Amino acid sequence: MATASSFARRLGAAVREVSLKKGAGGWYGPHMAAAERAVLERIPLVDLVVEVRDARIPFTSAFESLRQRVCSHKHMILLNKVDLANRSLTEKWMKHFENQNRLCYGVNAHNKDNIKELLSIVRAKIKELKVGESTYTATVMLAGIPNVGKSAITNSMHQIGRISAAEKGKLKHAVVSPQPGETKDISSYKIASHPNIYILDTPGVLSPKIADDDSASKLALTGTVKDSLVEECKLARYFLAVLNSSEEYKHWENLKDAVDDTLSLNSREKLMAGCHTDQKRRRQYSSDHTQDITWLRKSQASWLGIFCLQLI
Ligand SMILES: Nc1nc2c(ncn2[C@@H]2O[C@H](COP(=O)(O)OP(=O)(O)OP(=O)(O)O)[C@@H](O)[C@H]2O)c(=O)[nH]1
Q1: Which of 148, 235, 239, 287 has the most other CB atoms within 10 Å of its CB?
Q2: Which residues have any ligand 1 atom within 6 Å of their CB?
Q3: What pLDDT shows up at residue 311?
Q4: Hey, is 136 helix, strand or coil?
Q5: What is the DSSP letter of 162?
Q6: Which residue has the least CA distance to atom 6 on ligand 1?
Q7: Which domains does the chain have, with CATH numbers?
Q8: How many Å lie between the centroid of ligand 1 and the Cα of residue 205?
Q9: Residue ranges of the chain with pLDDT lower than 50?
Q10: Measured in angstroms, how far is the CA atom of residue 225 from the centroid of ligand 1?
Q11: How crowded is residue 208: how many other Cβ atoms within 10 Å of its Cβ?
Q12: What is the pLDDT of residue 25?
């Protein structure tokens, strides 16, 4: 019987094969090369670089070329999507990065308290970096591979950050999407006043040289490359193999109960009504899909987006 690792190899090989395909068939075209250059060129110009990683794959989701260019004192690692990851492993990873002299914090971009805490960590770090300067404006760059949640974090920090009422009235919105590669340009958003702190949201960058099939399969499963670039059945097989080999398959039971409850209230119609309400709600709040559990693949969320799994 095929194991998770054999499915991972097949999926990973498919992902690596498409990496350098030209046009819509691949992901690393001239646009991504230009984005990578623009991000790397900004490193010396910003005060702090926050490398956003996916908490489910804290090692594999590294932005390698950035890591090699930014010095440790102005490099922070932010593990996002902690709500989808294994909590105790996330804590271990945070300690691991701190031991490497990197400031590290774990967040759920959609959690207000997490974002408030992140804002105070960033403010304190900037204060430390600017010690001796009485007035200043600081810039923080969020960078990382596609779909790790940079724009979602940007929006939350911009909305929750301490800025004037007039500025709150003119809030900007970064595009948040379950599809990777939606952010096309570098944009600035204010997150604090006195001193002024701005955050730069940047396009996701994924090197075409993925180390091995195993890493490539993890990236595909967590939504770093578009599902349509690899055969979706390969993704589905790997996803189910991972699920079967972990305790997480028990979630299927809960899901079944939830659907049974709905059906026992008489009704396929109710199920359909729920679906319509859900779609209406999505139209209203188009920025956040991966929180939804009930309508599994309808939102195009990544395969792992709906389960709490850790792949490393
Ligand atoms: N569950 C969960 N979903 C999240 C979190 N952060 C972001 N997301 C979702 O992940 C998806 C990608 O988020 P984006 O903010 O668009 O990611 P990005 O890094 O800006 O993507 P690119 O444009 O490819 O660079 C969206 O569906 C978000 O709603 C989080 O902390 N938890």
Answers
A1: 148
A2: 80-81, 83-84, 108-110, 146-152, 176-178, 180-183, 203-204, 288-291
A3: 61
A4: coil
A5: B
A6: 149
A7: 29-201 (3.40.50.300), 220-306 (no CATH)
A8: 14
A9: 263, 265-307
A10: 13
A11: 15
A12: 62
pLDDT tens for each residue of 135-183:
899 999 999 999 999 999 999 999 999 888 888 888 999 999 999 999 9
**Beta strands at 103-107 and 137-144: parallel, antiparallel or unpaired:** unpaired
Tokens of 265: 């209230």
129-160: b (≥16 Cβ within 10 Å) or e: eeeeeeeeebbbbbbbbbbbbbbbbbbbbbbb
Q: Phi/psi class of residue 144: alpha, beta or left (left: φ > 0; alpha: ψ in -120 to 50)?
A: left
The interface predicted TM-score (ipTM) is 0.99
Alpha helices in the chain (DSSP H): 4-18, 30-42, 64-69, 87-99, 112-129, 150-160, 165-168, 213-221, 232-244, 250-264, 268-284
Q: What pLDDT, on the 0 to 100 scale, is given for residue 248? A: 64
Annotated binding site for GTP: 80-83, 204
